[in-house]
Amino acid sequence: MLEARGALLGLSTRFITYNPDISQASSAGTLTILHQPLAVAATPAQPQSKNAAGVLAALDRATHGCLKGEFAAMVTAPVNKAVIADSGVAFSGHTEYLAELTGTAQVVMLLAAKDLRVALATTHTPLAAVPAAINQSLLLDVLRVMEADLKSKFGIAAPQISVLGLNPHAGEGGHLGMEDIDVIAPALEQAKNEGINVSGPWPADTAFNKRLSDQTDAYLAMYHDQGLPVLKYASFGAAVNITLGLPIIRTSVDHGTAFDLAGTGDADPSSFFAAVESALDLVRMR
């Protein structure tokens, strides 16, 4: 597939077959590939569900390589969830798939752009299902993972986590919903009792003001489209998706597949470069 893309774009890249038994230093114009064959030819902008098994096999190989120390980290490109689901495999995203593959009970999706970090209590959950999905146990598990990885992977000695409320104005004292009072606030009190530096629940529409952000190492949003639009508006193309809680380092881009740009040479690779740099930073920190 990569050879075909290189030819389409007029690149003179030399491809080298990966060999785990020898040192293969990278150099300009070369790319070392651990070949994972596809079932059918991959045509730009034409997703093919017959290749879903090949996509998952590549993820499996990379994950197992990281687990046994063959690879230092994994950087993933965007994946089309619907194409994989259409092949008959239940697939809601990289994050959930890697959690199952590594036997990790609780993972956390965190997007980072320099000092702005936003984690999610729920990930690819339909909006109508979000309130029922949020409970004290989940929030405590997520906060524990966040604190542990902000310390171990980011080197923050005493991370401060700011938690967004679920409802407008964090429920407005219960007039706009009781979840912030009945679910989120008690979870935060328990987290404080465990020594986690946490505050909130904060109204999401004002939580990213400079006063609070200057005191925050990471935000916890209740759902996907609550916190990520702010981060992506501030730094689209420069943000990195980092999976917390895994026994391996995994980073990814902050965007989707953009099939309208596939094969044109016009796609912006900035986020992928940032994801690679972030993975390297995390490896060095470890």
What CATH calls the topology of the largest domain is: Isopropylmalate Dehydrogenase
Q: How many distinct beta strands? A: 10
CA(first)-CA(last) distance: 34 Å
CATH architecture of the largest domain: 3-Layer(aba) Sandwich
Neighbour order of strands in the largest sheet: 3-10-9-4-5-8-6-7
Which spans have pLDDT < 50 for at least 5 consecutive residues? none
Strand content: 15-25%
For the record, the count of structural domains works out to: 2
State the share of residues found in helices, binned by percent.
25-40%
If helices are DSSP runs of H or I spanning 4 or more residues, what is the number of helices? 10
Q: What is the CA-based Rg, rounded? A: 20 Å
Biggest pleated sheet: 8 strands, mixed
SSE order: HEEHEHHEEHHEHEHEHEEH
Structural class by helix and strand composition: alpha/beta
